[in-house]
């Protein structure tokens, strides 16, 4: 605690005022220590992510790249049948995850409302997809296209608002393009759904090639064996 003494004069008398100032040094040091802890945790998280990415086996990346390349080729060669099989696998996945989410309510009641809703929706969606595969092969990509259209419209409007608030001319152009893209998808969902397998196939082929090249480049190289007679005794 500090006692600060102030003097000031008035024509007819002298006054002295004492002001008691409480200085809490722990606040400053505490915030400084908290900032140091935050910086240390961020560095640790970044180091952990980098280590995890570096420890990913190169052969795993190569297998994933080859698989994506093969799936992309099937989507380009036979988009309808391949997408039908993908939707079937997706329906089975929804059904299994929905059942597991409902079963987990008997073990853990935390977030029970979210688990109940997600479980019921997963079971219903999985049963619908597995029962009517042809309709689901059309309905699932259509719903996905509508979702992407709404997302593009919201993103475009947000970017335009930020552009008028000082974001710049480039952000406005990007927002207008997003709005146009969202309107095209929203007014032509079936056409976009029919083109979706081909687009996914192109991305899968390109991504598979890039992943395979990355795995081939990042694979460990064996150390060169020195010729006989040059090895240290």
Structural descriptors:
single chain; 2 strands; 2 domains; two-stranded antiparallel ribbon; 233 residues
Concise structural overview:
The chain is mainly α. It has helices spanning 25-54, 58-77, 79-103, 112-131, 133-167, 169-187, 189-218; strands at residues 2-10, 13-21. 77% of the residues lie in helices and 8% in strands.
Description:
Helix 3 (79-103) packs across helix 5 and helix 4 (112-131) crosses helix 5 (133-167). A two-stranded antiparallel ribbon has the order 1-2. The chain has helices at 25-54, 58-77, 79-103, 112-131, 133-167, 169-187, 189-218, and strands spanning 2-10, 13-21. It is built from 7 helices and 2 strands; from the N terminus they run E-E-H-H-H-H-H-H-H. By secondary structure, it is mostly helical. The relative contact order is 0.11. The protein folds into 2 domains: 2-49; 56-218, no CATH class.
Taking the alpha carbons of the first and last residues, their distance comes to 73 Å
Strand share of the residues? 5-15%
Specify the number of helices.
Answer: 7
Q: In which range does the helix fraction lie?
A: over 70%
Q: Based on helices, strands and strand pairing, what is the structural class? A: mainly alpha
User: Which series of helices and strands comes N to C?
Assistant: EEHHHHHHH
Strand order of the largest sheet: 1-2
Largest sheet: 2 strands, antiparallel
Tell me, briefly, the overall form. Answer: extended
Give the averaged pLDDT, no decimals: 77
């Amino acid at each position: 605690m500090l006692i600060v003494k102030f003097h000031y004069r008035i024509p007819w008398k002298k006054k002295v005022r004492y002001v008691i100032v409480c200085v809490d040094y722990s606040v400053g040091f505490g915030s400084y220590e908290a900032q140091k802890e935050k910086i240390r945790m961020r560095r640790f998280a970044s180091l952990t992510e980098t280590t995890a990415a570096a420890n990913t086996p190169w052969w795993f990346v190569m297998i994933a790249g080859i698989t994506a390349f093969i799936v992309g080729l099937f989507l380009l060669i036979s988009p309808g049948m391949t997408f039908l099989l993908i939707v079937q696998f997706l329906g089975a996945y929804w059904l299994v995850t929905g059942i597991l989410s409902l079963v987990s309510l008997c073990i853990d009641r935390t977030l029970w409302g979210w688990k109940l809703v997600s479980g019921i929706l997963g079971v219903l969606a999985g049963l619908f997809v597995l029962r009517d595969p042809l309709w689901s092969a059309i309905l699932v990509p259509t719903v996905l296209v509508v979702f992407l259209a709404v997302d593009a419209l919201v993103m475009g409007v947000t970017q335009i608002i930020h552009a008028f608030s000082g974001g710049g001319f480039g952000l406005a152009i990007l927002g207008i393009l997003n709005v146009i893209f969202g309107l095209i998808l929203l007014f032509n969902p079936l056409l976009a759904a029919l083109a979706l397998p081909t687009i996914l196939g192109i991305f899968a082929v390109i991504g598979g090639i890039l992943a395979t090249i990355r795995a081939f480049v990042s694979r460990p190289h064996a150390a060169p064996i020195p010729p006989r007679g040059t090895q240290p005794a």
